Amino acid sequence: xxxxxxxxxxxxxxxxxxxxxxxxxxxxEEYGFAVxxxxxIPQELIDRAxxxxxxxxxxxxxxxxxxxxxxxxxxxxxxxxxxxxxxDAKVHDLxxxxxVGRELPEGHxxxxxxxxxxxxxxxxxxxxxxxxxxxxxxxxxxxxxxxxALHLGLDRGFFASTVEDGNSVMRLLRYPPLEGAEAEGAIRxxxxxxxxxxxxxxxxxxxxxxxxxxxxxxxxxxxPEGALVINVGDMLxxxxxxxxxxxxxxxxxxxxxxxxxxxxxxxxxxxxxxDYVIETLPGCIDPARPEDHPAxxxxxxxxxxRLREINLA
Length: 313
Description:
The protein is an alpha+beta fold. The protein has 7 helices and 14 strands.
């Protein structure tokens, strides 16, 4: 457990959720981040996924680019280097990535919001492994949302229907090795906030993830081996009227030998359903200022608004 009330929470999901809900909530209020151990995603599955991710990114550039969908907003398949940039950033981020989204059955009412996945035929077992990992991320995310609901004084199952068939996206990410003296401490991913409800990040053990504190300082997120980093996205921040914070964060290249290696990670961006209306929770409205909260907006409209800002729509 953490040193009480002073740092980012590190909690075990093997605990009864009610026993960790307030520690999670405190950490999300103060930092917008928490770290989860015993998250239930099998290490064997993580290892398999990491190996297949590296196998895909090692393919020739023209092979990978065949899976890029122009005009698709990067929602599925491959996004090459130099496409995405942080909101208001002057330069594009140094990264390439692959997106896996939800598979909906034929004729599903929400299928208009979610493109079909595409799968690289060159990497054996890719579809099976990443479909399994997607489900495992969803299960872990659902447990975290139960804790958040309890912390907010809601029924523990409050979020289940809000994220059912949500437009959640799993991203396989590769930052290439950097060269030269400027590699140490270079910014790999510029300062940004996440758009979605919560993000679950695998692969943050290698130093470099930093968040911006309320005091305006950059703080490194320390991650035990195999743990998940969870952070609040803009949708949950909006729903709670800023009580739970979507915190600006960035990825900085480490110092020393690690500065010259490629970096891999797998964030899972957990989303509300596209038709869910993000309307401030009554418990997050200040009775003294009842009008002081954001206007209701559907999660799909909010997503599109934000994707345009980061060059993906």
